[in-house]
Write a structure and sequence with these properties.
The structure is a homodimer of 398-residue chains. Chain A has 398 residues and is an alpha/beta fold. Chain A folds into two domains: 146 residues, Aspartate Aminotransferase, domain 1 (Alpha-Beta Complex), CATH 3.90.1150.10; 235 residues, Aspartate Aminotransferase, domain 2 (3-Layer(aba) Sandwich), CATH 3.40.640. In chain A, 37% of the residues lie in helices and 15% in strands. The N and C termini of chain A lie far apart (51 Å). Chain A has a seven-stranded mixed beta sheet with strand order 2-8-7-6-5-3-4, sandwiched between helices. In chain A, strands 9-12-11 form a three-stranded antiparallel beta sheet. The first copy, chain A, has a two-stranded parallel sheet with strand order 1-10. Chain A contains 13 helices and twelve strands. At the A-B interface, α1, α3, α5, α6 and α9 of A face α1, α3, α5, α6 and α9 of B. Chains A, B: Keywords: Aminotransferase, Pyridoxal phosphate, Transferase. Chains A, B: Its cofactor is pyridoxal 5'-phosphate.
Chain lengths: 398, 398
């Protein structure tokens, strides 16, 4: 009998998509199911960027350079420089989405059985990336009561072993929306310098900060050799399907190892790079517009959630998620009940139960992640559903 | 001091690109350098396929399904069915290039330290994929004297250990151009059934067979649960930059594991899939045209090589490479000499020394791989260069 590998067996299914079959069944019954479960922006991909692909004169869609098109790397370096980051084109390896940047960073920084520490709740696939790369994700818990702020450095230190090689931080955070302060980042930097760790900074949501300026890990003085930026255009330009990301580091030795990994897949997607490169043509106020729209959505969703009896919802400073605590026995059971047993005027909700974002058992069991990537009218209708559902749900707990 | 991982250190640089700096220097000196080193087809990407992307009505370039667009999977299943293969859309997971299919197959079929057996010479990056996935590539030698035919099954059996999980076969072969016969494939199938191994079939060049019909591993009766097809549109449609491949298997358990790996990167490139899907609109004689062109190039290159004193060159049945033996001390030294010290009427050659395609030390040291992905006029000029160079090269050996 043929066997699937242990990693193939151990990999968890996506925490975002487990409820999809129930949502499809609800839609077949005629319900409108509002999708708040995944971070797929509804904001249109900038037409200038699509036009750059659609008007390109291509005779042979050939392999490009392994590290990405030189022209695109220069555009991307300009983008970082406009943010005050001392990044040059040479520091950049263009990747196939942010996911490939995560994979490359883990493969190049960690040996099998090495450990990396991540504040939990965390982006669910990190656990899968650890399994695929044969490395160990070690969680340090952050708590809703504390708005999911950075856990005390002592909690990180308590988890450090001889096998610890890196801290992985998603900032702004998915799933919590928390934006780490300069002070918190400096504490982490000092920890990494003290224990000789890489600081893997997943900044997929770097352009979505609503209350305070974003601080990138690349800004931290003294950490240049430690910081590995994991980036993507997916959220920044509503271009998830382009599969264009980047790994950025001033650490040349590490970059050379990543380059050899990148050679295995020859080059990142060519058409997506043409699209990404045209970001240079966007008006300078492009992000101001998208930020204003997401901020209004956040304010609306948080206000609605905070008005529901028994719901606890910190006000996230960034990304486009809220992680809230509900007065229910089990958020996964509640999420399924929403799709199977509930409706309000022919509508219901698809949400992500938060347990899939935690490595520690039992944490987050009453929590949901909601993505505000839909129009404000849909947010209102969704919150109407949620408020009504929380009154009717038989597993309600105070 | 921060360290790069062991896999990061062990990864070999690409055997295709090591001479690139010397080629660039030669070009800066004003030489025309004919690129016969990599398999980048010069044949144009079908305009119908590019038009499908360029005329698509896209508002949000969003995440697609993890296994690929349903519409594209159906088109791809139709393609296989036209070849007589019983493939349905459900059997297909669309990948980001053939490279991702290789990575997924190794991760899903093999545990760390497990082994897979590959006839050598082999596609150079296989060794890197083994390192990245912490698996072991075990070579079984094939020989130029035997036209690089499948090594005797006894040679495979001699390499099988308790850790062997798969045979990886590239058919038509890169770098040798050898096309495996039905009898050879059946022998391999029997071996896989007997020893409970996966048969990973890299058929990137499946449409480039010149002397006999191609036999796919998917045609082998009784091996349905064992065969994993690794495919790509890169060569088939001159669309290397699209980064669209596929992993195809009837083994549902394995496919579910691959699907979980695929969920980590959410989806394959969206624009590339639109392009790939439009292959359905190509005229039915599309491959006849491209095959005729490549076959004429092969015939020309092989005839020219065989006419050079001391050169041994089997006549490859497929792909677009020849692997030939030269009367030189060291093919790598010769290749560098071509770029640094040789010219004929202002022209020279960029080639791939074959040592990078072997795992066994010393094998292939006098061999070169030449890709016939350039116009016949360039092939003639390149062969003029090679013939002259072999006369002048100080390290010539009879």
């Amino acid at each position: 009998m043929l066997h699937v590998s242990e990693r193939g067996q151990l990999l968890p299914p996506s925490p975002y998509r487990q409820l999809t079959p129930y949502a499809e069944a609800a839609r077949r019954r005629g319900l409108v199911v509002h999708p708040l479960n995944i971070g797929q922006p509804d904001i249109e991909t900038p037409p200038q960027m699509l036009a750059a692909v659609q008007q390109a004169d291509i005779r042979v869609l050939d392999y490009g350079p392994t590290a990405g098109l030189d022209s695109y790397r220069r555009v991307l370096a300009d983008y970082y420089q406009q943010q005050g980051l001392a990044v040059t084109a040479d520091d950049i390896i263009v990747t196939t989405g942010g996911s490939e940047a995560i994979m490359f960073a883990l493969l190049a920084c960690l040996n099998p059985d090495d450990e990396f520490i991540v504040p939990e709740p965390f982006y669910g696939p990190y656990q899968g990336f650890a399994i695929a790369t044969d490395t160990r994700l070690v969680p340090v818990s952050s708590y809703l009561e504390n708005e999911f702020a950075l856990p005390p450095i002592a909690d990180f230190e308590a988890k450090i072993t001889a096998r610890t090689r890196a801290i992985l931080l998603c900032n702004p955070n998915n799933p919590t929306g928390y934006v780490y302060s300069r002070t918190e980042l400096e504490q982490l930097r000092d920890l990494c310098l003290r224990h000789n760790l890489y600081l893997l900074a997943d900044e997929a949501y770097r352009e979505f900060c609503y209350d305070a300026p974003f601080v990138s890990a690349l800004e931290l003085p003294g950490a240049e050799q430690h910081v590995v930026l994991l980036d993507t255009i997916s959220k920044r330009y509503s271009a998830c399907g382009a599969r264009i990301g980047a790994l950025v580091t001033k650490n040349q030795t590490l970059r050379e190892a990543v380059f050899k990994l990148a050679q295995l897949r020859v080059c990142p997607p060519g058409l997506g790079q043409l699209l990404a490169q045209a970001a240079a043509e966007l008006p300078t106020d492009y992000f101001a517009h998208t930020q204003a729209e997401y901020q209004a959505r956040r304010d609306l969703m948080v206000a609605r959630l905070q008005a529901m009896p028994g719901v606890q919802c910190p006000r996230p400073g960034g990304a486009f998620y809220v992680l809230c605590q509900l007065p229910v026995d089990d958020a996964a059971r509640f999420a399924r009940w929403l799709l199977e047993e509930f409706e309000l005027r022919g509508e219901t909700l698809l949400v992500s139960p938060a347990a899939g974002f935690y490595a520690t058992a039992e944490l987050g069991r009453q929590q949901l992640r909601l993505a505000y990537v839909v129009h404000q009218d849909i947010i209102n209708r969704s919150m109407d559903c949620l408020a009504a559902a929380l009154k009717q749900y038989p597993g309600r707990q105070e």
